[in-house]
Input
Amino acid sequence: MKTFYKTIVLSDIHLGIKASKAKEVVNFLKHHKCETLILNGDIIDGWQLRKNGKWKKQHSNFFKHIINLISKSKCNEIIYIRGNHDDFLDEILPFTMGNFKIKKHHVHYGVEKKYFVTHGDIFDNITTKFAWIAKLGDVGYTFLLWLNRHYNTYREKKGLPYYSLSQVVKAKVKSAVSFINDYENQLVKVAKARKCHGIICGHIHQPAIKTINGIEYLNSGDWVESLTALAEDTEGNWKIIYYQDWLSGLAPKTKKSKTESIEEILPQGVTINKND
Output
């Protein structure tokens, strides 16, 4: 039996790279239904496809499932928001085909609340003003995902659960933490300027639901590391669905889970100066 939600938001699937969890996101969609499905940017990774990305069968299967939802009107509407990695969509925006739309941004009407929906890249100064730096950083991030994939293959053989190495690294780097805080505050200002109750975004691969200066901030995370979705029930309540928890039949996380220390997973002899 499928679980019903008023709205489901997915972002940052990055179809076209090895680390994309396309198979998992299709499995998630097959077990859930909704009135509105929002694909909030970076669904396709055009940056990697232009270089050495690889389009796999499961990547095509994702769009086959979306086409099935459109053709059989299984959702009232499906909104695809353009992200920075799928910026090639700029050539056809805005696009409408029945209940399917591709847009730069969107206003979502919840239960007595209004939300501004954007991928979020336009509020990232590195992405907008220094694209070459962003793409250089993307190379380092791709390496980190490669390392993460092999590290988790090792963990799986040891009977250990999935562990996001890149998320831990980001949490330990002060500049990354500062960037995330600045990013969140910028988006909250946008929501206020547009007289919305909240902002729905993606881009930084950090799932979150919080209130900042009276504005609801919702980030759907990603399907590369976090494997998360935002879901709104019929009463207007939002939650983060963690795929691994859902798959295990566990309740969605309500508090931060205990993780290993970064020192435990670094090679012997490598240390971090915590005073930096």
User: Anything to note?
Assistant: DSSP finds nine helices and twelve strands in the chain. The domain at 3-265 is CATH 3.60.21.10 (Purple Acid Phosphatase; chain A, domain 2). Confidence is low (pLDDT under 50) at residues 126-137, 255-262.
